[in-house]
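--- STAGE predict ---
source: upstream dedup step, 1 unique chain passed
mode: sequence only
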Amino acid sequence: MTGRPALVIFDCDGVLVDSEPISNHVLAGCLTRAGLPTSGAQATREYRGRLMSDVVARAEARLGAPLPPGFVAAYERARASAFERELQPVAGAAEAVRALTGAGVGVCVASQGTLEKTELTLGLTGLRGLFQAGALFSAAAVARGKPYPDLFLHAARAMGADPRRTVVVEDTTIGVSAAVAAGMRVVGYAAEGDEAALDDGRAQMIHALAELPRVLGVTPAP
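--- STAGE serialize ---
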């Protein structure tokens, strides 16, 4: 893609809201109590960015048995409680989104998580008002989540944007794979030293969201 994008699709967790450390800490505790000792680092490595159904399948394969009844509901309650206490926006997220919309570029959010979770986390961090009604998308609405392109193609179609003029901002390898498969330009947000996992030549790397408007050649209208 050359020139100004028509649409920028943001992943939510780890890109707009700093939820990954919280989610992985809570998940590690829940798995440990379910009989599968797991550290926060292990939870990040094994489950980050995956659909909840994939998390359960992987955990049960490691455990060699089904997780306890009600495991997912208990985890989601514990995570929501931790979000309410601790969740913060990613530094520079609001400013980056405002710079794009101020320049006339469309923005939306496409997450593996449910719409309810995205609404919760954006609301808690004060970011919800930056996205118009109908600009939040969940993998629950498509046949296949990331690393398949379905979610990003669905979001671009709903926003009326050509995939060839769409940019995706992602912080996981499966998200980068999904964007590449969708034929979209990818910007890899490499926070906390994640560059090695993302920088395989398919994504343009940034280390702060403040860099995003400049990298995309976008400046707000005067």
